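INFO  loader      accepted 1 record
INFO  loader      residues=157
INFO  predictor   begin
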Amino acid sequence: MFHIVLVEPEIPPNTGNIARLCLAADATLHLVRPLGFNIDDKTLKRAGLDYWKQTRVELWDNFAQLQAAHPEGRFWYLTTKCRRPYYEARLEAGDFLVFGRETKGLPEPLLEANAERRLTIPMAAQTRSLNLATAVGIVLFEGLRQVRTAAGSHISH
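INFO  predictor   done
INFO  writer      dumping tokens
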């Protein structure tokens, strides 16, 4: 239903947890190289539990390659460097939710080129950012809520 894009993820347990979120939400996980870990990393698999093998994961050499493969895709860029809350965007099935590295976020040129598609998770001023897996979970499940509400169905348990 949704596509979660991690641009140059660095921390294996975050990616493993995000893989588990993707499986739970029937989302595809896209990993954009370079990765800060080996895809066979034990901590990555431990965080994803036995779900890793069931999760749809696609690897990309760079972000442009991913975009070229999905020219009709709607890409949303999550950042702390904007004021538009994620819940004000009208998310649709098939959207790509793009997250950056844990230590640096998304590259500035990418954010500048897509200013109208930037979203943030509002938080108290003393907080710089959230854990990547937490941020993905917040936005992904808001997207599911919006899609299912628009379709007139309820989220199943």
